[in-house]
Amino acid sequence: MKVIITGSTGLVGSAVIREAITNSSITHAFVLSRKDLPKEISDNAKVTVIPHADFSTYPEDLLTQLAGCEACIWAIGGRAAQFPDLDTFRKVSVDYTLAAARAFKQHLAPSLPDNQRFRFVFCSGKFAEWDQQKSLSFMADTRLVKGQVEKGLCDLVDKDSRFDAFCARPSGVLASDVGALGKLTGKLYGAIQVQDLAKALVYIALNGADKQIIEADELTPLHQ
């Protein structure tokens, strides 16, 4: 499978790239990135790094390079507190993600063989909330925005298209070099190590899932 990967300089996206390189079922990874990547990634024969400055637009020449891709693993986002303001967080999380999904649905999915469907795999977060009017007691901005993205992606799926959307909801993500104390603390809130999350996301890209929303406790079995 040829796959598109975003969020290449982040914790999750970089782990997804490493997993794609080692996974024999991934034949090639097209990495959309604003920044240069380490040579061990950019020089790898399985990886094509495509400079992409504006994630709200997908011009014809870019889509031509991505022709034949069967999945996208979208790891751009994070928590609201990591952004300068809510408008920026919403633009990056909602506008960028849905712009890519619409472009891939319109231009990449129809060109796949008849028995194949394009899979868009979104790394969301636990407790994402679709009801934008709901009052939340913690992490409200993050949960509402991620819920808005999830709903927007799922609304793009219809019986007549060959486009599927899957939203993974990790409770927390631990770096690969996390110490024993970090692992112990992570167990308290059901965190997953980043390499295991990457394996789960690649698994979904390759195989799909029984439902569109994959909760935190359902991610770990996918990589075992």
Question: What would you say this structure looks like, in words?
Answer:
Helix 1 crosses helix 7. This protein has 224 residues and is an alpha/beta fold. Strand 1 (2-5), helix 1 (11-22) and strand 2 (28-33) form a beta-alpha-beta unit. The chain has helices spanning 11-22, 39-42, 60-65, 86-107, 140-155, 180-188, 194-207, 216-219; strands at 2-5, 28-33, 47-51, 71-74, 118-123, 163-169, 173-174, 192-193, 213-215. 38% of the residues are buried. The chain has a seven-stranded parallel sheet, sandwiched between helices. It is globular. It has a single domain (2-223), classed as NAD(P)-binding Rossmann-like Domain (Rossmann fold).
Topology, please?
Layout: E1 2-5, H1 11-22, E2 28-33, H2 39-42, E3 47-51, H3 60-65, E4 71-74, H4 86-107, E5 118-123, H5 140-155, E6 163-169, E7 173-174, H6 180-188, E8 192-193, H7 194-207, E9 213-215, H8 216-219
Parallel strand pairs: 1-2, 1-4, 2-3, 4-5, 5-6, 6-9, 7-8
Helix pairs in contact: 1-7, 4-5
